[in-house]
């Protein structure tokens, strides 16, 4: 079967380091063109990856008749604008997270999807990793009883003031960039939307972005997510899922070093020294490749789209509510 022809919208690092290699390593797609507002940069990047065409503008990429799907890794404030333009140009879109700067502006993607008949997918690669599939299966079968609490953290150090993550006008900040992962995975595990949220935000006094954001989400039936996301802490990521009959721990839940295996830890809690823990290993898989192959299959209507754009908007509503809570000092409803 003919592979999906992808166009890459910009030479952003995430595309160069992870997504372009992932598409090229996968079974369902090819990178057919790369665009940049700097034509020379687009040409150099295309040559580096053996991509046949480059474009010196985003508009030219969207007008390319051979392109079937667009990968959009632009800065957060440009996600809606260029995703809508791509849909209106008749292209499917895989758009980096967060899908928008707020849920209201993301509604434009729903309208564009509906009038174009094309698909749009938010790029949360973690939902394609086998370890998360296994975790959800274990939770559903009751392996650790009733899940009551997820404890989650994602932190790293990002001090460059010129990095888009540290530019508030570009949609920078820890909650947008890494706090979205604890939120989306908690919704994935609980299979539900939080009823209320509360947040504590510490903003960098010079940069203006949230450098540390912690929050709590209350799910139906008493489930909770307690999380922290940060830009100015030592690198760390972890998820612990606590149930009435045990716990599941993911030591590397979100971003995996290339080539390194992963594991989950299942502990009944019968030994408080960890002696009752069982480790389930997973060979290395490229979750970006799995994501891009799954997106290609959805674009061709060969599979259903498990997480439509409405799911991305639901995640955005939680982020909106957390920012409102930081201002009001109260619980807020998404």
What can you see in these coordinates?
The protein is an alpha/beta fold and 334 residues long. It has two domains: 4-124, Rossmann fold, CATH 3.40.50; 130-284 and 316-328, 2-Layer Sandwich (Dihydrodipicolinate Reductase, domain 2), CATH 3.30.360.10. It contains nine helices and 14 strands. It has helices spanning 13-25, 39-49, 58-63, 79-88, 103-116, 130-140, 174-190, 287-299, 309-328, and strands at 4-9, 29-35, 53-55, 69-72, 92-96, 120-123, 147-157, 196-203, 210-218, 224-230, 232-243, 246-250, 262-267, 277-282. Strands 8-9-10-7-11-12-13-14 form an eight-stranded mixed β-sheet, covered by helices on one side. It is globular, with a radius of gyration of 20 Å. The termini are far apart. The model has no long low-confidence stretch (mean pLDDT 97).
